[in-house]
Amino acid sequence: MSEARRVDLRSDTVTHPTPAMRQAMVNAELGDDVLGDDPTAKRLEAMAAERLGKEAALIVPSGTMANLISLLVYARRGDEVIVGSQAHVLQVEVGGAAGLGGVLLRAAHNDERGRMDLDEVRSMIRPPAQYGPRTAAIFMENTHNLCNGSPLSASYTAQVAAIAHEAGAALHIDGARIFNAAVAQETTPAELARDADSASFCLSKGLSCPIGSVLTGSEEYIQQARRIRRTVGGGMRQVGVIAAAGIVALDEMVDRLADDHVNARLLAEGLSKIPGINIDPALVQTNLVFCTTEGIDGNELVSRLRERGVLSSGSPQRLRMVTHYGIERADVEYTVEAVREVVASLS
Ligand SMILES: Cc1ncc(COP(=O)(O)O)c(C=O)c1O
Q1: Domain end: 217, 252, 287, which one?
Q2: Which pairing describes strands 288-293 and 135-141: parallel, antiparallel, or unpaired?
Q3: Residue 156's closest CA among 107, 208, 105, 121?
């Protein structure tokens, strides 16, 4: 095995823009988007709104900012938002909801496929009494990152939406990887977002753009989101440079996500045959592969794999490997072999 080989499976965010994206970025027609006249940003936003089946869209710097903006659209200080116990917005966004928005996040248990128990969610809705906080919104995630990258169905989303709407609350989808969810279920992102009031997606993950996320929703929601984007410093002047890559991504990079899913499943199946690695390949439906180890020092495994050029993320207790543009079947085979050898040497 070549020492110089590098298989970077830490995240799909490590992807670089394609040659077509770089070309589009060079040639992008630009304006000042904070003044509302960047034509390329407007084109991307129109495309994004159409793909998600919403009235309008707004480009923002990151998925984290998309979540923060959406929280601030729906919730006032002291309001509550129901999220899954493994939600990105709860686990790995530095407490921004509380820190910056004064918003309480209340967690309903997520199962290994990213679903919240609907009876539990229903029971968490606050009655409009004098004492409790107001339930402003429910946030769900699709695909669900920390729950094995699971894709959630449109019918599940409809049930969550019904609970939210009955309570006068909104439903937002953190759809950082909603295109993966759509491809995995052979449906469209619009279908998956149909019953939600708003949905975001990331350009900078499997779609391979260098930067950027997009919020989608009603005209009124996007108008408010635009004001809040300004508040949190997310207005980006000639953002057409980034939006141009996003347009290429929506045109050219969605269908190929199926290849990432095939590679992820192959990786999961290979890993499942290695004694000491625990993984259920059936849980791998998209491009995220999680596994745990038994009887092997996870720290040692991660660092020995790194020496062989295989980079993973997560924690030594629960490794994550992510397939993406640039990772081929041969890289997966190399990775499985590297894990097999390292595990054998550590057992
Ligand atoms: C589900 C989900 N939401 C939000 C984010 C945040 O995106 P960003 O890293 O662009 O802030 C991520 C990033 O991995 C994610 O997986």
Answers
A1: 252
A2: unpaired
A3: 121
Kindly state the tokens that stand for 312.
């993973």
Output the pLDDT for position 1: 47
pLDDT of residue 130: 79
Closest CA to 59 of 185, 187, 213, 190: 213
* Residues of the chain where predicted confidence (pLDDT) is lower than 50: 1-2
**Beta-carbon neighbour count of residue 88 at 10 Å?**
19
**Closest protein CA for atom 6 of ligand 1:** 63
The pLDDT assigned to 347 comes to: 81
Q: Which residues contact 95 (CB under 8 A, 6 or more apart)?
A: none
Which of 14, 64, 178, 208 maximizes ligand 1 atoms within 8 Å of its Cβ, making it the mutation to test the pocket? 64
pLDDT at residue number 4: 77
The CATH number of the domain holding residue 148 is 3.40.640.10
pLDDT per position as a tens digit, 40-93:
999 999 999 999 999 999 999 999 999 999 999 999 999 999 999 999 999 999
Q: Does the Cβ of 144 fall within 6 Å of ligand 1?
A: no
pTM above 0.85, yes or no: yes
Helix, strand or coil, per DSSP, at residue 151: coil
Cβ(174) to ligand 1 under 6 A?
Answer: yes
Q: Which string of DSSP letters, residue by residue, matches 190-247? A: HHHHTTSSEEEEESSSTT--SS-EEEEE-HHHHHHHHHHHHHTT---TTTHHHHHHHH
CA 346 to centroid of ligand 1, rounded, Å: 33
- Asked whether residue 57 is domain-assigned, the answer is yes
Rounded to an integer, what distance in angstroms lies between the CA atom of residue 84 and that of residue 107? Answer: 5
> At residue 32, what is the residue type?
D
For residues 82 and 171, the answer to whether their CB atoms sit within 8 Å is no
Q: How far is the CA of 63 from the centre of ligand 1 (A)?
A: 5
Q: Which atom of ligand 1 is nearest to the CA of 67?
A: 4
Enclosing domain of residue 112: 19-252
Q: Are residues 36 and 136 in the same domain?
A: yes
**What pLDDT shows up at residue 129?**
80
* pLDDT for the residue numbered 3: 53
- Backbone Cα Rg of the chain: 20
Furthest-apart CA pair in the chain: how many Å?
A: 67
